[in-house]
Amino acid sequence: MTNLEETIKKCASGDRKAQTTLYNHFAQKMFGVCLRYSKDTTEAEDNLQDGFIRVFTKIDQFGFKGSFEGWMRRIMVNTSLEKFRKSNHLYPVEDMLVFESIQYSEETLSGISADDLMKIIQQLPPRYRMVFNLYAIEGYSHQEIAKLMKITEGTSKSNLSRARVILQKKVIDDFGLEKNTVTTTLC
Amino acid sequence: MLNENKNIDRLFREKLGEYEKTPPLYIWSNIQGKLNTHRKERRIAILKTASIAAAIIVAFLAGWWMTGSENKGSIPQNNVAVQRSINNVAPSANENSAGGDALAVNTDNDNSGTTGSSSKAIRSSSSNLSSLATFAANTSFISNNHSTAKKPGELVLFNTEKEFLDELHHNFKIVKKLTDWIVAVRKDEETPTGFNTNAITLNQFSRTTADKSATKTMNSSVRNNGRWILKAEFAPVFNNQAQNNGQGGNLMYNNSQSYKPQESTTENTFSGGMIAGYKVSKRLIVKSGFAYNNIRQTTRNVDFMGANPLYNVAANATIASTPVGQVNLDKMANSRNDAILNSSASLNYASKNLVENVLKQDIGFIEIPLQATYKLIDKKIAIGLTGGISTNILVGNKAILSENGENISTGETSNMRNVVYSGSVGFEVGYEISNRITLTVEPRLKHFVNSISTNKSVNYKPSQMAIVTGLTYSFN
């Protein structure tokens, strides 16, 4: 895209060609975001669709003050969070194993594909997935997460901690990583 | 533990932070479709607002124009009244009461043929005299055999009671002086057509009486000039039957004895709304406002066409064809009737006749009429003829498929026209319950000028017979 600002302005005036250009430019990245927040591809597609409709209907409100990609990404995240809130998932907290002191070597890490990790993250209970994504990948603080998800900071911290535990277990199970020390406790 | 947490966070951040994947092509098609719907809805909302605003502006402009032209016409009448009142007075030297101004009263005793010149002269002479004439014309307490002053109540120059009374008090003094002068002149001349001085003995005309008379006249005057009305309408609407458009002929014919043919009926409905009116004259009223009106079509034993590219039907939709238009139904997830809705390209006659299915189409319009009513009889029981044109804006379009009374799918009638025009004529009978409230009953015939569908194979221009019951409030 040669001139993003111009394309955005055209989109705001309803130019279909500009909308197609903008979609083609950002669809892959935004689909990646939606996939991380969803339990499967179908849910991610729905969120991507709703997110882009929101982008195009609110694009005239973008003030050109920050990154457009960041603005778009926030819309996708918010759309996913809203969908999560509406579905009102009440997942029971599962008993889980806690693994400590796991050291991953660089070689091991490079052997794990992004698609594999996506599958793992999608298997997380929805609220854990939301909190982990917001904290570990988007870089939100617990305070911000608490506000976004209408939960307490304590719940956010607890959910993050449990999400990490589940992810660690999955990574070890799926990729057979060596563990220096494994202490098994029941939560 | 801290390192371990950072490790797992880093692992996912590095691998998934910039993760990209190409979404399926249909996502963009879906987005475009929804954006188009969004645009359409916005356009309808804008059109609706603009139409209502235009109707209101037109009504106000009409009112302003009518009021303006009436005021213009009232000036010469005043002057004529002045002239004629003065003409009743015998000419004399400048013994007038207008503060020494030269009163250009016509010196001719004959009342005829002097209107033009004297009215001009008087207009320029004294505002007091003009006020006096108004007073005389409104109250008629100056009686005279030759007087052709306007009837009481036909001149309105004052907006409030206070304003009028102030003017009245002011005029009272002038009238007294003038009358004294008239009496003196009459005595001198003793003309056979003379003034009946008894009738204008203002000494006996107490101020209280004058006030009462003036107030009474003023009330009568204002009541006759209340021009705006507001009407609430409600009506049962009888629709003509939509004719089959022949689409059924494209469907496969089934000789099975268990096969029941599709039956479609246009139902009778109700409409209601609020109408504002402006009385252009005593008998003519121009009206505009808004009313809700809908068309309801019920189809039994529906012939479905299932998902098939040949019919241009999406995999998750089912279509049915009725005289009002083609209905696109969404397939309901986990419906026990998937067998019906998710049928093959051919019609699923066997399935459809196992159960009683009913498809209800509900198409709603907001009607913005521009009507004129002419009163043939304007008594306590009034009779009038109403005619007008209306803009009908599509505001609702839904279709519900039910089976044995249970809703199993929803959708909408496709290719509906957003704006449809109609004409109407009615015969209005009104009963005046009070000075302000009138009950009306009006059989009204309404016909749509264009088809409600843009689909060329659907040509449904509804004709409706409505028995409109209305309650009219007149702003006096």
In short:
By secondary structure, chain A is mostly helical.
Q: What do these coordinates show?
A:
The complex is a heterodimer of chains A (187) and B (476). Chain A has nine helices and no strands. Chain A is an all-alpha fold and 187 residues long. Chain B has eight helices and 13 strands. Chain B has an eight-stranded antiparallel beta barrel. The longest helix of chain B is centred in the first third of the chain and has 63 residues, at 25-87. Chain B is flat and about 120 Å long. The interface between A and B is medium-sized, with 39 and 30 residues.
- In terms of DSSP E residues, the strand content of chain A is under 5%
**Rg of chain A, Cα atoms, Å:** 19 Å
Q: Mean pLDDT across all residues of chain B, rounded?
A: 69
Number of helices of chain B: 8
Main interface: chain pair and counts: A-B, 39 and 30 residues
The percent range for helix content of chain B is 25-40%
Spatial gap, N to C terminus of chain B: 85 Å
Based on secondary structure, the structural category of chain A is mainly alpha
Radius of gyration of chain B: 37 Å
Globally, the shape of chain A reads: globular
The rounded distance between the terminal residues' Cα atoms of chain A is 51 Å
Trace the largest sheet of chain B across and list its strands. 1-3-4-8-9-11-12-13
Spans of chain A of at least 5 consecutive residues whose pLDDT stays below 50 are 92-101, 180-187
Helix fraction of chain A? 55-70%
Find the count of extended strands of chain A (DSSP E, 2+ residues): 0
Dominant shape of chain B:
flat
Number of helices of chain A: 9
Largest sheet of chain A: none
Low-confidence stretches of chain B are 72-87, 89-155, 190-211, 213-224, 246-254, 307-314, 333-353
